[in-house]
User: Fold these one by one.
Assistant:
Number 1:
Amino acid sequence: MKRMSSKKLVIFILCMLAVIGGTTAAVFSVSRSESKDKAEITENSSGETSVSAWKVDDSAAHAKALYKCAVSDVGDTASVVDLLEAMKLESVSGPYTAEISSKDGQEVLTLTLSDEISKKDQKVFNNNMKLCAQQMLVLIPGVQAVEWMYPVKSDSAEAEQTTVSLDVDGATEGLSHDIRSYGKSAKAVQKLLTEQTGS
């Protein structure tokens, strides 16, 4: 009788672990660190943010470094973190947390950004983030869309939360090839980066 109870308990625990494992999304964050890289999102002494257009590095060395960090398994959070750091995402987005989860049967990488962006800077900021998202869709082929959420500074007392999303089809617009084709080699990644410099 005891043996049967133990067996049932083990089966119950295994089932619970499977359920928890199946529903848990990969969540990771990056804290602000001192960096020699120029940040495209900066803060002045009064706490106001300012955004400048991102100058994409299209050197062969950078393309090779990004390709080396390509993520083959979306469940491997360490690899995703390595890629986002190699991209220098924080210099573009400011501090962020990232989560990969299933939405409507697709894997979506969601970036939650903490810096407030002013309405006048939104267009430049979203274009910078679009370039980052294109690189993510190339180098994380298991992800079908990237979305970023951030507070927009408005005239009202509270900032409004904005969400922007870019899927594979949207990411291909304006490029000479399908977005996924740029992930085939370091040379192909460099081609994407070069095209992005003209954005």
Number 2:
Amino acid sequence: MSKGEQMNNDRENLERILGGKIEQRADRTAPGINPVAGVEFIYYEDFETSRASSQFRKLLDSAGEFTASSGGIVSDSCRITLPNGQCFLALSFHGDLDGWRKAVEAGARTLGLRLARIQGDHLMVSDGQSVPLSECKVDFG
């Protein structure tokens, strides 16, 4: 058995044990392109003053009091860069969608950041921009 065949066999065994497919890095798509029941995806403006994880914490710290009663919020390694150079970082949340959405919106408002969502094949930015995803650079850090 070749090394490639062995790796493929190992992945198939892991997928069977875990009960689902393991996403390959080359096959990743931007969060929000494929809807997931009970999960919402939002992109927030990358304010480039620190690493994405620090920016995520600062966004949440700026939200004030959280009203979300269940679920959680997660930073994603996806960064979308628009043709004009603006960058947006992905996050997702589940559970109390309204509560988490309000927290993200409050944090962005406090920091003066734009938010964006994927709708169809466009990134819709809160300032009214609609940018085709095909014109954007999508990176997974």
Number 3:
Amino acid sequence: MKKGIGLGIDDFRKIIKEDCYYFDKTNWIEELLKDRTQIKLFTRPRRFGKTLNMSTLKYFFDVKNAEENRKLFKDLYIEKSEYFKEQGQYPVIFISLKDLKKNTWEECFFEIKELLRNLYNDFYHIRESLNESDLKEFDKIWLKEKEASYDNSLLNLTKYLYNYYKKEVVLLIDEYDNPLIVANQKKYYKDSINFFRNFFSMALKTNPYLKTAVLTGIVQVAKEGIFSGLNNVITYNILKDKFETFFGLSEEEVEEALKYFEMEYQIEEVKKWYDGYKFGEKEIYNPWSILNYLSNGKLQAYWVNTSDNALIYENLSVANMDVFNSLEKLFEGKEIKKEISPFFTFEELERYNGIWQLMVYNGYLKLNQKLEDDEYLLTIPNYEIQTFFKKGFIDKYLIGSNYFNPIMRTLLEGNIDEFGRMLEEIFLINTSFHDLKEESVYHTFLLGMLIWLRDKYEVKSNGERGQGRYDILLLPLDKKKPAFVFEFKVSKTIKGLESKAEEALNQIKEKQYDVGIKESGIDKIYRIGLAFKGKKVKIKYELND
């Protein structure tokens, strides 16, 4: 009987107890122990196994239920390691901040107090060992009293545990940056950063009760923002070469899983859909998508539909022309060159390059090659992420999900007049595209739509053909289908739309942008001239068959 797929299970004990397929990452424990840095921060995209790995650490180190937990590691890598002697040797504090998603600081702080109360409740058994002073502080947190020292709560808990067990404490903080990302989005960042700066610093800075601390998150918030005064936090982000494969899956791990579930014949398609991430110098697969694929056997987008991408959407909605020009290159499958800092500041989101930082650290763009200093060549990593740009960028900011399929259908069926009418309707009802002035904006808009015909067409942009450069060319993979040549013009007036559309159509013919297409075996060619003025559209076309 084959093992099950533990979809959505991020608790190591449950994965093992329910006999789920487990990608053995316990060599991570050995590497962590070999690495002598006391405080480590790992930043990776969401759903790349951060919480499961932290849960694994909890069950490995925790002195509580040590013998029972020891059985969980039977036949895993760490059981055969000399470092297995560290199993069950330390009190462990495990706290996750991933659910702190509130609209106001007051609501967030209420949840923080509840989170800390539950954490203290987990260690209620040590309460009677506390002296009178510590007992008062413990109970203030446990009872969520207003005057409790919440800033000091983690530091104090490490002290209580150290005194009780006479052992140093392992501190695990999962998704440390989530409340800061939400706070920035909801406009209470200042209150949030003021609290968490003290909260983390108290627990991590020269804490004599600490054995080690491991933190995870998506981005490394700049030290001046969150780890002020802490020089002992070592960050292992997607730019670094150490610990690359401990989050996400290597190709060998994916191939082994496909073989186990008798699906290895699909490896090339799986690679196309879910590979392409790069941590350090290692190619990585998305584990959430792989597990979903193993579960139902269908190649489709899983990861991009699992989370609120509001921060990315928000930045796309106010993006300038530099961003849209770069997006156009990405849609074409090209690389773009951007500066990617190892640190992240929310202030960067106010500038044009902030969106690229956000997309890289969230896993939507791949660091293809480092150039110099902090400059990198970026690409879309795989087919699944391309669907994010369709659903996130096109559906939300360009046309909406109710319009994409119908307008594409009218084009492919040769109903060009209706295509032009629907295009104008899209402009009229869409309020996010408010800067419709330059031809390049319209070009990016149309290319962003047409790029999703790649399963049926070769989509080309600004290519040389005949005696000039066309705007967009669609060449059918099935030569029985028609080809489409587009040329765009922007009119200064509404009255000038007609003549501009004619000018665009004539340019296609005069400069012979469709030369050689019929010779390749394609019989039908639509020449389409489009003229724009704000949200008004005029279309002229000819069918050459």
Number 4:
Amino acid sequence: MVTIYSEINKLGLFSRRNDFKVFLFFVNRTECHVHIIWLNFNGDPVIYKTIPPNNAFPVVTHEQHPWVFKDSRTGDRMLGNGEELFYPKQDKKNPHRPLIILLTYPLISLRQRALQAIRDSIERIEDIERSQIPSTLLNDIDEALALKETALEHYRRCKKFVNN
């Protein structure tokens, strides 16, 4: 497990000790690789697993353990059963039955989706200056590119850490 994405936990959330085990089955219903991120007992985000598109991964966790989800390439937020922040809850009638958590894209504005598409199509900052993008969007694109670069740098550091 590798800790990254310090900007995730701005609310001071963290896992709490709990005896109620919860069996989860994360199902990636997107076209991207999704980081499954657990907020540990200190509130640090930890990449627990990265799930490829249309794949699944089982996890044993506990109640009071928060989880978040991010696109591994861009750092864009994803949803788990429609929630940005997922807290598992044990089924008291059938505690050993796994809960299926569907990982999906969030509903975003057309403007935000357009910015994501532009961000993903631009390789170098110089490409923006030569594009025909309205000047009102250029600042937003600069911010989106900076977030993408931050996510990529975190991923590179994680790969080095895991490979060593």
